[in-house]
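Protein entry
_____________
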Amino acid sequence: MTEKKFEGQNAIVTGAGQGIGFEIARKLASFGAKVMLNDIDPSLNEGAVEKIRSEGGVCSSCPGDASDPDFIQNLVWEAVLQFGSLTLAVANAGITLFGDFFSYAPQSLARVLQLNLSGSFLLAQAAAVQMKKQGSGGSILFMSSVTGHQAHKHLAAYGMTKAGLEMLARALVIELAPCHISVNAIAPGATLTERTRQDPEYERIWTELTPTGRPSYVEDIAHAALFLLDPASRQITGQSLVIDGGWSALSPYPY
């Protein structure tokens, strides 16, 4: 029987219809947390929720745009309404828009900033307000990337937002620590997801470039996320954890 180490914990995970976000939500539920799962795609959202429920997890659905301030507030209210409290918030929703810096469109920049930075900031804010009101602490987790540490061609805007999230995790310590709320970030490297598997060369290239001999799986990222979300880890705050099989130690570029 799986140890229910997250029993009594109530979580929101955004952008969790598939990929890393889904696996974090799935793992939280398997360890006893009640999970409010969000994705902008209603069909992905419902499918993910049903899969977690079929495995015995407690999971509710709240599809919508995680960059919209009104929706974010409603998402937190809905979690509290259904579960009674909120103790964990994972700002996983994000968008990657590649583009040459010299011609990067203002509309693309606005979309990346709105979801990756503003959406994450506002979810953390709404969740922290609720956690502070409850008085029992909690954990907030941001989804960064190795591109917040290492330059990647055509990802200047994306990398900027990911580095910004790591600074946000550090900056919030001074305000959230007195409320017993930890705030951290994880920075995945090359990871096999539904999106990256669409590139037939992705796994081969990153197997060659990664010191451990393979790209990351979504389970690798989820295990790291759960480590930082665990109430036993709340002395860890303001930190960023890179999960990339050692790639950033060497940084060979995927030409």
The chain has nine helices and nine strands.
